[in-house]
Write a structure and sequence with these properties.
Elements (H helix, E strand, L loop, with lengths): L9 H17 L4 E4 L3 H7 L11 E5 L2 E8 L3 H7 L6 E5 L5 H5 L8 E4 L5 H10 L4 E4 H4 L9 H21 L9 H14 L4 E9 L20 E10 L2 E11 L4 H19 L7 H14 L11 E3 L6 E5 L12 E4 L2 E4 L3 E4 L2 E6 L2 E4 L9 E2 L1
Parallel strand pairs: 1-5, 3-4, 5-6, 9-17
Antiparallel strand pairs: 1-2, 2-3, 7-8, 8-9, 10-11, 12-15, 13-14, 15-16
Bound molecules: zinc ion (3 copies).
Length: 373
């Protein structure tokens, strides 16, 4: 019987909010302002829709968390994280929500603001408090959600296992003669069958479409002889999955097999570079070096990886120039690729977590090129 994982507790949320407030103070900020979105979900468990009505969590090191909400949404907000998590300050339609929020803020403070805060809300606060200034929360505190606790790791592992089940099943479906969108719909249905509540992407890049890493799925009919990049993921119990495998319809040519072998070796090298204290850019370098040595350096046109948690793409980023050290509990993708314009692409992606001893994969399906029909 599948069981629901235990929910996070009010204590979990209070600890997260306290950590965020402390980190903000350490970064020289007067506080953190969080609009509806992944940061609010992580800090409070509350998932309101993002609208023209102001909802904003105000965190500062020296005071209790306050959630500003429209009066009509106050009951839901109080239920979300447990009434003890924060104080609710509501405002009624017709009142100025920024005038309600302003007394909670230092009039000349600098604040970290969640990246998805609507401009109208930030402009409203600036109008009320012209002495305040603001910076992107992702820029100011990029590591806010990066290190996962044991409970979060279990959820990301479970999401990864569901993505692996999806891959096993997709190998059994027909590819040749069907549209990319049909296989993409199969992927989405399988992710849901294995417990995902949200499907974020189902890339099916066949033949030349595989050379475009952001190609999702179109009306191209998959042909015998195609390489097909599959990249799919979403949220299960609120935490993300994201995995990629490249399959071939029928037997590959030696050239196709060679490119796939290079990507697989690069993915392995990136994975083996994972251990505490290593800079994020070293993961990118380890994978990229293999691809450059094989002569395909110009055709690896994206970063090697990205963090994952309550979203499917977030810091830390595995890219040249990112000197942040890996810390046990971080989770991110290792996903090198080679893209030959007009011909085909290959990408192999696993979610990896950092442990005291090195990396541990949350995707464990075979990385050898699978042959499909
Ligand atoms: Zn082929
Ligand atoms: Zn992916
Ligand atoms: Zn990814």
């Amino acid at each position: 019987m599948p069981t629901m994982p235990a929910p996070f507790t009010t204590d979990d949320y209070r600890a997260r909010m306290a950590r965020a407030a402390d980190a903000a103070a350490e970064a020289g900020l007067a506080g953190v302002l969080v609009a509806p979105g992944p940061d609010l979900v992580h800090l409070t468990g509350y998932r309101p829709v993002s609208t023209e009505r102001l909802t904003m969590l105000v965190l500062a090191a020296d005071r209790e968390p306050v959630l500003v909400v429209p009066t009509l949404e106050a009951p839901d907000a109080e239920e979300a994280a447990g009434a003890a998590a924060f104080t609710v300050r509501d405002w009624t339609d017709g009142k100025d929500p920024y005038a309600v929020t302003a007394p909670l803020l230092d009039a000349d403070g600098r604040f970290g603001v969640s990246d998805n805060t609507w401009a109208m809300h930030l402009l409203g606060l600036q109008r009320q408090l012209p002495g305040t200034s603001y910076t992107s929360l992702t820029e100011a505190l990029p590591m806010l959600r990066a290190v996962k606790d044991a409970h979060e790791l279990a959820l990301i592992e479970a999401a990864g296992a569901a993505a692996d089940e999806t891959y096993h099943e997709i190998l059994k479906v027909r590819f040749a003669g069907r549209g990319e969108a049909e296989v993409a719909a199969d992927l989405a249905a399988l992710l849901k069958q294995f417990g995902h509540s949200q499907v974020d992407f189902t890339v099916v890049g066949s033949g030349p479409n595989g050379a475009n890493p952001h190609h999702e799925a179109g009306d191209r009919t998959i042909l015998h002889g195609d390489m097909v990049v599959l990249d799919f993921g979403g949220l299960k119990h609120g935490y993300g999955s994201d995995t990629s495998r490249t399959v071939h319809v029928g037997e590959p040519t030696p050239a196709e097999q060679h490119v796939h072998d290079v990507v697989r070796e690069a993915q392995q090298a990136g994975f083996e570079a994972v251990r505490p204290g290593v800079a994020c850019q070293e993961i990118d370098r380890a994978a990229r070096e293999i691809i450059e040595e094989a002569g395909y350096g110009d055709l690896f046109i994206h970063r090697t990886g990205h963090g994952i948690g309550v979203t499917t793409h977030e810091p830390p980023y595995m890219i040249e120039g990112e000197e942040q050290s890996l810390i046990p509990g971080m989770c991110f993708s290792v996903e090198p690729g080679i893209y030959l314009p007009g011909r085909f692409g290959v990408r192999i992606e696993d979610i990896v977590t950092v442990t005291e001893d090195g990396g541990r994969r949350f995707n464990n399906t075979a990385r050898e090129m699978a042959i499909v029909e």
